[in-house]
Input
Amino acid sequence: MRKSENPESEEIKAVLFEMGEKARIASYELAAMTVHAKNECLMAMAAMLESSTDEILAANEKDMRAGMENAMSVAMLDRLRLSHERISEMAQGLRNVVSLEDPVGRRLSTVIRPNGLKIEKISVPIGVIGIIYESRPNVTVDAAGLCLKAGNAVILRGGSEAINSNIALARALHAGGTKSGLPDGAVQLIPWTSREAVQVMLKMNQYINLIIPRGGESLIKTVVENSTIPVIKHYKGVCHIYVDCEYDADMALRIIENAKCQRPGVCNSIEKLLINESILNEFGPKAAQLLTEKGVELRGDEKFCSVVPSAIPASDSDWSEEYLGLVITVGVVNDVEEAIYHINKWSSSHSDGIVTANPQTAEKFLNGIDSAAVYWNASTRFTDGGEFGMGAEIGISTDKIHARGPMGLPELNTYKYLVIGNGQIRD
Amino acid sequence: MRKSENPESEEIKAVLFEMGEKARIASYELAAMTVHAKNECLMAMAAMLESSTDEILAANEKDMRAGMENAMSVAMLDRLRLSHERISEMAQGLRNVVSLEDPVGRRLSTVIRPNGLKIEKISVPIGVIGIIYESRPNVTVDAAGLCLKAGNAVILRGGSEAINSNIALARALHAGGTKSGLPDGAVQLIPWTSREAVQVMLKMNQYINLIIPRGGESLIKTVVENSTIPVIKHYKGVCHIYVDCEYDADMALRIIENAKCQRPGVCNSIEKLLINESILNEFGPKAAQLLTEKGVELRGDEKFCSVVPSAIPASDSDWSEEYLGLVITVGVVNDVEEAIYHINKWSSSHSDGIVTANPQTAEKFLNGIDSAAVYWNASTRFTDGGEFGMGAEIGISTDKIHARGPMGLPELNTYKYLVIGNGQIRD
Output
């Protein structure tokens, strides 16, 4: 018997298709909603989150107990844990989305053709967005708020660790929203955690227009390999800083410390450091001392290890690994061209920077590096929707199609052409 | 033994990976080329096409003979056939691309943040684009020209019917281009026609950034189901015209005739007609007479057939079928809302139009229809890069991600952020 023929699968499929159809219908209603109406829904959702705090905390308690029984790590448990404060932060997040500009209906261009046809390019919602994510329950609220403001229906599929919390959060969002006129299918959460549900979801092309996976490498890989729906990946951050020979040592050290140590568990922190060979003897030991003092484990290529003997010789896999912790791999390059070559080869195309006092060298680097964000004399930690002035982000795309880098509200829209005539036909 | 372990597969994989690596390296060189240098390559490619006419025609002759032996249809043979004139049209196509504006390096926005960081959003090439197409050999030249002007390397995979023609064309493009400084891996054609080569290509995420399939439904389906690389579909055109109750009958007839009959084999011609019920008795027979005179087979829903008894009762599949010929299915709706609902359900989201004299009704339709191009009082046949003023197009996207409708040079670019500081770190 083929797997899809077992009754349980058929039930999953039937329920998901029903959710898909509801989302599709809701997406048309959302696309037509005024910004005022959308904002009222967001406010009502925020209020309902706060007034449902007890139910949400009770549901979260179940997830926490299950996590402890399954020997979840302290860091994971901390990401999973909700509190009064965290719930009111989520509600505040929704209220912040209210203050953001409506991305829908922007006139992107207008052309009058010689035959008199007027062609307007207008921003419109994408339609139905599927979000697949792990552990942190706040994604349920953040993603729903941003998708709604951008006029999209959303189908959420969170991780099994947080299933009870997510169901309680989604229920509050739905109840609050629909009381204020939110279409019934606008915010839906898949109530199962089986892999099968994800497999069905990833092939629902007739209902879902875009999948955004947020999570670790294996989640992203599963989604990319199985989805027939367009995917915008929020993949790992293997970020670099290259220190050029014409440089301010204090600035370089400050940037390296910030980019590596300020919050090592996030995707815009650096995992690799490249040093120009001509400053290796002078700068290598200084950087090593600073990083070692901060508790960072040093790995290095042969040249770096010859100057900093305490560094561990790097293996090939070190160049592509995202440590998300206090580890860094240091390499030595001859010039900016070699740095560019190395970074384009090994970077995950997220955020890479140069420290140099020479504008020509900086320009080469800025032009040559093929990453979403390329920095000159600043920490890579700024790759973030808030820091870029977007107000909020649904994540950071490491893809090149549609959206690159932080994805804010405009990136949750597409466009259509309105063609207005008075009887024109084609010759 | 697994299929991928047979030596032939391994050879295909090895050659394709080598092509991918060459393309990736070429893409960095292309991204850095001036518009002048790219234009010189395009001119040299055009000249080499013309001076290679004899070789190209000899190769095409082989494909034509094989086509005739395989009992290819007259229409297919005509699409495959090259001539002196068609080759010089292709060369002229490349020269036209020279005159188009360079899409690379546009400053899309500049922001100065409160901390002094300057964030510039700049258009850059996508990287490596894979084009998978059928029969018409001119796609080889058009796609290569547009990808090159937009700064992308291209890997072409044409249909087996045209393999000899495509190899000869690609050889001329490569020879002409490289003489003028085109990077070696900028324009490459996969020399095999096996499905296996496509399967390998569709999973070369490390080398290819975007796949554009151009062809029939089964080609698109295969690509979408198997690609782990982002795909922008150029899918079928199931286009509609809705004739409202407040209308100019002459304009409606002129637009319907043009949209259905002027070139019925292309994606922007209409396949369906919707008529407002209150004008059915008056307009139905007129439209039927006109279309019948033009040789169009009429199919219709129950209401339409009751007024036009010569129409064939439509089956369910008629509503989603792209005939690409002289057939149309006609339905009757109560009002613009029902027309919108019907079109959003059955359209392929390509091009749909309304004929109405009422601006409020038109606005409802323009806002409500979820298609790449939405028309008011004009023929849908204008959905085309040239007609939209883009100069040239690589195709017409029926997807909503990255590009929608005609894809010109700007849609063959993405962007990156340049972040320029003087030592900023994050708190």
Notes: Chain A has two domains: 3-235+406-419, 239-382.
